[in-house]
Amino acid sequence: MQSPVRAPGVDVVLDQIHHRYAGATAVESVSLAIPAGELVALLGPSGCGKTTLLRVVAGLLRQTGGTVRIGTEIVDALPTNERGAGIVFQNYALFPHMTVEANVAYGLRARGVDAAAARATALEMLSMVRMADYGKRYPRELSGGQQQRVALARTLAVRPRVLLLDEPFAALDKNLRLDMQIEIKRIQRELGITTLLVTHDQDEAMSMADRIAVMHAGRVEQFDTPEAIYDRPATLFVATFIGTANLLAGRLAAGDQGGFSVACEGGGALALERAAPCSRSGAVVVAARPEHLALAAPSEYTLPATVEMVLPLGPSLVYELLLGNGRTVKVTQPRNAELHRYAAGDRVGLSLRPGSPAGVFAG
Ligand SMILES: Nc1ncnc2c1ncn2[C@@H]1O[C@H](COP(=O)(O)OP(=O)(O)OP(=O)(O)O)[C@@H](O)[C@H]1O
Ligand SMILES: [Mg+2]
Predict the structure, then answer these.
(1) Which of 173, 188, 327, 344 is found 20 to 30 A from 115 (Cα to Cα)?
(2) 348 alpha carbon to ligand 2 midpoint, in Å?
(3) 279 has a pLDDT exceeding 80
(4) Which ligand is the nearest neighbour of the Cα of 166?
(5) Which ligand is nearest to the CA of 89?
(6) Please, are residues 262 and 270 in contact by the beta-carbon 8 Å criterion?
(7) Looking at the domain that runs over 12-236, which CATH code has it been given?
(8) 252-261: which pairs have CB atoms within 8 A and are 24 or more residues apart?
(9) Which residue has its alpha carbon closest to ligand 1 atom 22?
C-alpha cells in the first residue's frame, strides 16, 4: 500500500484571476505564487472574495479570467476530482448514515480501492487526526470538533496534492478551535501538503500561516509573511485590518537631521527614521502600533498628549492618551520598574521608539 505520508507538496500559481458573478466582480487581478508545502492564509473581511478564490482553485467555479496552475499543470479545464485538491468546508458534511470509518474510506472506495486497503488507510488517517477509537461511531455521536477531524481525515485519505480549507474552525468554540488549529498545522507540516486556508480571523492567520494574502474588495493588497505584514503593512487597509494601529494624520517633510518628520494635526511632530511605503512630502497618515510608541517628558521633538487612562494588562501597561486634535492613541509599555510610570492627567511627549517601524500612507 502507498504510504499516506509525504506526498511531496506542489506549488500553486494563480495568474491574474478574475471572477465576475452576474452583476458584480468578486475577485480582481489576483496573482499569487504559493510555494510547495506552505500554508497560505487568505485573510480578509466578509465579502472580499476569499471563498470565490478558493472555489476557483478547487474547480468548483470557473473563473471569468486568468489561469490556475497546480504543480506543472494548468488545471483550468479540469474538474475538481482531477485537480488533486481536497476541500474542507466550515460545515463538515459527513454522511450521517455511515460510520466514521466508512466516511473516511468513502473517497477511496469511490476510486476503486478494495475494501481492505480502503479500511487500512481510513484507520491510518483517523489515527493521524487522533480519532482512531471512534471508527465505529456515527457522526451524530461525535462533537463538532470530532466531526471536523473526521472531515479532515476523509479529505486527506485520497491524498490531495493541495488542501483547501474554508473557515474550517468557524463552528467550533474557542478552545476546540485552538486544538484544531494546532492539529491541522501539525498534519500539514508532517505531510508537507500545500494548503490554502480561508479565514477572516487575523489571529488564526498570524499563528498558522507561513504567508498571508490580505484581501480587500476582491484584490490581494499584500502577500507576505505574518511578521512582514504586521511590521511593514503595504497599505492603510492592511495596517488597520491586522493588529491595532494608531492613525496619526499630518504633513510629511524631510527632518533636520536626516529621516523624516510628520507635523501632526493639533500640534507637535513625530520623527520617523523612514517613511515607507509612501515617502512623498504632503498629507499623510502614519500607522503606528501601540508597542512601537514611547512616552517621555514633553519636548520640542515629541507629540504632546495627556494621559487619560492607564490599564495594567498582564506584563504590559496600556496608556490611553488624548492628542491636541481630540483623537486618542494607545501606547503599550512593558511593566518594568525602570520605566517611569505616568498617571492620568500627566502631560507627556509621544515618539516612535528607535528602530520601530511605522507605515506612512498618502493622506
Ligand atoms: N453565487 C453568487 N452570485 C452572485 N454573487 C455572489 C455569489 N457568491 C458570492 N457572491 C458575491 O461575491 C462577493 C465575494 O463573495 P465571497 O463568498 O467570495 O466572500 P468571502 O470573502 O468568502 O466572504 P465571507 O467571509 O463572508 O465568507 C460578495 O460580494 C458576494 O456577495
Ligand atoms: Mg467565505
Answers:
(1) 188
(2) 45
(3) no
(4) 2
(5) 2
(6) yes
(7) 3.40.50.300
(8) 252/278, 252/279, 252/280, 252/281, 252/282, 252/283, 252/284, 252/360, 253/281, 254/281, 260/360
(9) 51
pLDDT tens digits for range 214-240 = 999 999 999 999 999 999 999 999 999
Residue of the nearest CA to atom 3 in ligand 1?
Answer: 21
Nearest-angstrom CA–CA distance, 14 and 340? 52
Confidence bin at 206 (pLDDT 50/70/90): very high
Strands, sheet with 269-272, edge to edge from the N-terminal-most edge strand: 269-272, 260-264, 246-254, 282-288, 359-362
**For residue 198, which atom of ligand 1 is closest to its CA?**
22
Cα–ligand 2 centroid distance for 113 (angstroms): 33
Determine if ligand 1 sits within 6 Å of the CB of residue 290.
no
Which ligand is the nearest neighbour of the Cα of 53? 1
**Sheet containing 293-296: which strands, arranged edge to edge?**
293-296, 347-352, 303-313, 316-323, 328-334
Q: Is the CB of 194 under 6 A from ligand 1?
A: no
| Three-class SS state of 359 | strand
DSSP state of 255: -
CATH topology of domain 246-362: OB fold (Dihydrolipoamide Acetyltransferase, E2P) (2.40.50)
Mutate to test the pocket of ligand 1, among 17, 19, 20, 21 (most ligand atoms within 8 A of CB): 21
Task: Answer whether 48 contacts ligand 1 (Cβ < 6 A).
Answer: yes
Domain ranges of the chain: 12-236, 246-362
Q: How far is ligand 1, taken at its centre, from the CA of residue 87, in Å?
A: 18
